[in-house]
Amino acid sequence: MRVQLFSSSEIELREVACARGGREVFRSVHVRLCPGGALVVRGSNGCGKTSLLRLFAGMLKPVRGEIRLDATACYLGHENALSRQSSARANLEFWTKFLDASRESLEEGIECFHLRSLLSAPVSSLSLGQCRRLALARLCLTPANLWLLDEPASGLDAQALESLGALMASHRESGGMVVAASHVPLPLKDAATLQLDESGYHCRQDELEPLI
């Protein structure tokens, strides 16, 4: 597996509030994440987990508070962003060219998520888990040091989840950071947890102390 060392960087949200459709979904979020760190965002449906990831990615702006982002981000949403009419190989080739990645990185993604036997198949014929593995292989192609993952374990079997865990661990060992929204446990050792309240308005930050 390739090793890419990232320079010192960090991200911080200070007393951030976010609104969606004119409704405040959360407020008073304060998070600081340093190189090698990981944060798992939990909460009920509609509490703002995806919105928080999009704030990190710069896709949304907070209604209050400050965001400091000294990192390049890769956002992988809960939708896989795949062309269903194209083959798995064609999708990977597209993202390799789009991200200006190397053939070595492409092969790493194929091996990491056991995709070789699926390369000639159209995406429309793949299962939910196979599509998710194909989308996750994109992480091997990106040079970003901050990975923003929305329900990354959706549809994955035990083997694929283990592969994802190994990839995230390698990324963090190189100084990369991971922020993931998930309803299920993730293989992220020593990750802090940010729990958004069921009301969607407040957040509990007691487990974030190791990152501050």
Strand order of the largest sheet: 5-6-7-3-8-9
Structural class: alpha/beta
The profile of the biggest β sheet is: 6 strands, mixed
Regions with pLDDT < 50 over 5+ consecutive residues?
1-6, 200-212
Give structural notes:
The chain contains five helices and nine strands, in the order E-E-E-H-E-E-H-H-H-E-H-E-E-E. By secondary structure, the chain is α/β, with parallel strands linked by helices. The chain starts with 10 loop residues before the first strand and ends in an 8-residue tail after the last strand. A six-stranded mixed beta sheet has the order 5-6-7-3-8-9, sandwiched between helices. It has a three-stranded antiparallel beta sheet with strand order 2-1-4, with helices on one face. It has helices at 49-57, 88-98, 103-112, 128-136, 158-173; strands spanning 11-20, 23-33, 38-42, 64-69, 73-76, 146-150, 177-181, 192-196, 203-204. Helix 5 links the parallel strand 6 (146-150) and strand 7.
Write out key terms for the chains shown.
about 210 residues; alpha/beta; 6-stranded mixed β-sheet; 3-stranded antiparallel β-sheet; globular
Structural topology:
Layout: E1 11-20, E2 23-33, E3 38-42, H1 49-57, E4 64-69, E5 73-76, H2 88-98, H3 103-112, H4 128-136, E6 146-150, H5 158-173, E7 177-181, E8 192-196, E9 203-204
Parallel strand pairs: 3-7, 3-8, 5-6, 6-7
Antiparallel strand pairs: 1-2, 1-4, 8-9
